[in-house]
Amino acid sequence: MTVRIAMWSGPRNISTAMMRAFENRPDTTVVDEPFYAAYLAATGLDHPMREAVLASQSRDWDEVAADLTGAAPGGAAIHYQKHMTHHMLPGVALDWTGQCRNAFLIREPEAVLASYTVKRESVTLADIGFERQRELFEREADRLGRAPPVVEGRDVLADPRGMLTALCAALDVPFSEAMLAWPAGRRMSDGVWAPAWYDAVEKSTGFGPPREEAAVLREDLKPIAEAARPHYERLAAFKLER
């Protein structure tokens, strides 16, 4: 039986590096942000490479969910799904997530905003997904009767082996040494938006050293960071320790 892992992150975290780590396992296949086209179609937002994204994926929420809960590509034992929390708009059905082992990848909002605005100047609280991530976390915690796994990006960078071992244990899958390093370059599994967002990860061959998280924010970004922080801190209270 296939184990489906849904990893819920906001933008500008180490979500693509985490996807690389899982994809490097011999027992795992991955999917990159499968709801991105549906999200862009519903919101009309002007993201980098918008038309290419819309052409590359189904825009039908239910069709995407059916694919995610169907047979894993190649019959893989593990199907790792990289999701952006802000893609899951209010009103979108979430029943399919009950067929996944859901985990949550977090990063401090100040660091997210500083990184995000390098790529896209305009940003709102909804764009960075903190509130939605908390809603998804609370929903899964209610379903399980306990907190689902939470990992902090900088903790993974500081101790990849320790944190990935802890994450795999929490997801009830075996840790693999193959998760610690991977070949540089682009993947067929990468979304078509890779040229706009993945320049750093394409050069990587593993998890780099922890990033400097202190960020000097523009004045207009500080209220967004303040609004996001309670949601971040709620999840951070449950993060895994190595």
Automatic annotation (TrEMBL):
Keyword field: Amino-acid biosynthesis, Branched-chain amino acid biosynthesis
Alphabetical list of Pfam families matching this protein: Sulfotransfer_5
Keyword Amino-acid biosynthesis: yes
Amino-acid biosynthesis among keywords: yes
Family, per entry: Belongs to the class-IV pyridoxal-phosphate-dependent aminotransferase family.
Protein name per the record: Sulfotransferase family protein
